[in-house]
Design goal:
By secondary structure, the chain is an alpha/beta fold. Helix content is about 40%, strand content about 10%. It has helices spanning about 10-15, 25-40, 55-65, 100-110, 130-135, 145-160, 165-175, 200-210, 235-240, 260-265, 285-290, 320-325, 330-335, 350-375; strands spanning about 45-50, 70-75, 90-95, 115-120, 140, 190-195, 215-220, 230, 245, 270-275, 295-300, 340. It has a 7-stranded parallel sheet, sandwiched between helices. Strands 2-1-3-4-5 form a 5-stranded parallel sheet, with helices on both faces. Helix 4 (about 100-110) runs parallel beside helix 5 and helix 6 crosses helix 8 (about 200-210). The relative contact order is 0.15.
């Protein structure tokens, strides 16, 4: 029985997320107007606190935000233990692994007075949307930022795994220049399976088809004309006929553990699996079992289901025993397998993406400021501009 119900069309996703269709021209004009009006007004600047700030992004965020708002940058991740640091701020800016569960949302609203959350990412599976609605906290996201950078990273994972680049590099550093165990396969004529053909999935398909001469199969409930490959009627057909399978799906109740034992059994023996979307798409224990049994040939992931415990942190100075206090057994197993390549959620990490994230975040907070202004003045005359950056 094929689990085609696990994918949602774009229209279904908008319904699920309670997002209205974008009105691009109105949105463009509204953003420009928001920035001009806010910059020229004499109103008190909003206070914004930024959690999970990293050195690589701070300068770019400062450039976009500091001239419009009073901004405080914090390195700690948002958790129930750190939430009180947001006390007295109007808006809060969070990253992909910050904790926005029901308890945190309630404290943000009732104790800290935060009225708006600006996500510096596209996904919001860590956000308790119903709690935000209950307490009147507005949530905005960055729906898109340099999507081809993620497609390029997926391609880098494929090439590194195929040609054993990590093993080779490690050997050379230790003085071993032999070639045994480094044999890969020619990309030409192999088949890539793309599950989820949004801009990232289509970008990877283009790279593989036009750059490497590969055949491409795809599955999506909503087929796109721009897709260079051949669409299949069900996911099972993609899995059975692909040498490399790459996932490009959102994470929700329909796609959680999208790849598990049954799907692995459907794949070609020795197939490569790539995931640069969300860690929860994989039942990672089933994947590890597939790797150990040789059902899966290799695994490349930039995301991990429990990544908030370890990603974006430095454990290099800790002993093995100390690392195990933070790591889980699953990541320890993945790290020990030579046919696995894990990167720490860096697929998006380009200068272009960081700039686009900062710009969109600024515009989202400016739009929130305008909504506050309208509410204070009881102004219902401003044109309603629906957009895909608003979650709730």
């Amino acid at each position: 029985k094929i689990r085609a119900h696990k994918l949602l069309s774009s229209q279904q996703q908008r319904t699920l997320l309670r997002l209205k269709p974008q009105r691009s021209e109105n949105r463009r004009r509204s953003r420009a107007s928001n920035e001009r009006c806010y910059a020229s007004s004499n109103k008190k600047k909003l206070k914004v606190v930024v959690f999970s700030t990293s050195d690589y992004e701070r300068e770019i965020l400062e450039k976009q935000l500091n001239s419009h708002f009073h901004v405080t940058f914090l390195k700690p991740r948002l958790t129930i233990e750190t939430v009180d640091l947001a006390h007295g701020y109007d808006a809060m800016c969070c990253f992909v692994n910050d904790d926005l569960s029901a308890d945190v949302i309630e404290r943000l609203s009732e104790k800290c007075g935060v009225k708006m959350i600006a996500l510096r990412c596209a996904g919001f599976d860590k956000v308790d949307v119903e709690s935000c609605k209950k307490f009147g906290v507005l949530v905005y996201r960055v729906p898109m930022y340099d999507p081809l950078s993620i497609a390029e990273h997926a391609m880098a994972l494929i090439l590194a795994l195929n040609r054993k680049l990590m093993i080779s590099n490690s050997r050379v550093k230790s003085g071993n220049f032999t070639l045994d165990g480094l044999v890969g396969f020619s990309m030409r004529g192999k088949t890539l399976g793309v599950v989820g053909t949004g801009k990232i999935g289509r970008g990877l398909a283009n790279i593989c088809a036009n750059g490497f001469g590969m055949s491409v199969l795809g599955y999506d409930l909503k087929q796109k004309r721009e897709f260079v490959g051949q669409y299949c009627d069900d996911v099972d057909t993609v899995l059975k006929n692909s040498d490399i399978i790459s996932l490009h799906l959102p994470l929700n109740e329909h796609t959680k553990h999208f790849i598990a034992e049954k799907e692995i059994d459907s794949m070609k023996r020795g197939a490569m699996l790539i995931n640069t979307s969300r860690g929860g798409l994989l039942n990672i224990k089933d994947v590890i079992c597939g790797l150990r049994l040789g059902k899966l040939g290799s695994l490349g992931i930039d995301v991990y289901e429990s990544e908030e415990k370890i990603f974006f942190k430095d454990f290099s100075n800790l002993t093995v025993e100390e690392k195990m206090l933070y790591w889980d057994d699953t990541m320890a197993q993945l790290s020990s397998l030579p046919q696995v390549l894990v990167t720490p959620h860096q697929a998006f990490l380009t200068h272009k993406a960081l700039t686009e994230i900062a710009e969109c975040t600024k515009q989202n907070i400016l739009e929130f400021a305008e909504e506050l202004d309208d509410a204070e003045n009881d102004d219902a005359s401003r044109e309603d501009v629906s957009n895909t950056t608003r979650v709730c």
